[in-house]
Amino acid sequence: AWMVDPDAHKTFVRDNVTLVMPVGGRSSFYTDWSVRPSTTFNGENVNYAWDTFLSKELPVYLQQNFGVDPNNNGIAGLSMGGSASLAMAAKHPKQFKLASSFSGYLHTTVPGMWSMIGLAQLEVGGYKITDMWGNPNSEKARADDPWFQAERLRGKDIYISSATGIPGNHDQP
After folding, report:
1. Is the pTM of this model over 0.90?
2. Is the dihedral of CA 140, 143, 145, 147 positive or negative?
3. How far apart are CA 122 and CA 87, in angstroms?
4. Burial of 139 (0-12, 13-18, 19+ CB in 10 A)
5. CB neighbours (10 Å) of residue 155?
6. Which residues contact 92 (CB under 8 A, 6 or more apart)?
7. Residues 146, 150, 155, 158: what is their CA dihedral angle, to the nearest 10 degrees?
8. What is the rounded CA–CA span in Å between residue 94 and residue 147?
9. How far apart are CA 162 and CA 137, in angstroms?
């Protein structure tokens, strides 16, 4: 969708920017599922390792093949990717100098949000939030919750955007 609708790749065509847009990870929150593989309700046996891929494997590949500095990056995401971008910038401070969240969940462990994320994960594929994060008070859940990582984002360039979803004066029908 970022390639088709807003032409994201064209935005940086004249800039010294390497744009990487991973696709997939439905309901994964782009984190490592270190509690349990996703098996509870959907029959999969997938132990997602998005954090490992984005913070360790991808930077090596980009440096070796495109000369991208592994310590001069920005990270952005939409919805669950927005939450992940803030959490990853906090967890990997030398790698990410800026982070952007577009309609991300900024306090994932608060009771109402925890429940809504859990229901959404079940609906889109039978995923279980406790397979991903354990319980809302776990160290893993708090490490991926932007609210608890806010202090670790101090000094970074942060852009957070969200809206009501109601079209405004500048939205095209």
Report:
1. no
2. positive
3. 23
4. exposed
5. 8
6. 55
7. 40
8. 20
9. 26
Tell me which residue has tokens 């030398």.
94
Residue position matching structure tokens 């609906």: 123
- List beta partners, residue 76: 100
Query: What is the 3-state secondary structure of the chain?
Result: CCCCCCCHHHHCCCCCCCCCCCCCCCCCCCCECCCCCECCCCCCCECCEHHHHHHHHHHHHHHHHHCCCCCCEEEEEECHHHHHHHHHHHHCCCCEEEEEEECCCCCCCCHHHHHHHHHHHHHHHCCCHHHHHCCCCCHHHHHCCHHHHHHHHCCCEEEEECCCCCCCCCCCC
Q: What's the pLDDT tens digit per position in 41-91?
A: 777 788 899 999 999 999 999 999 999 999 999 999 989 999 999 999 999
Angle (CA) 28-32-113 rounded to 5° is 50
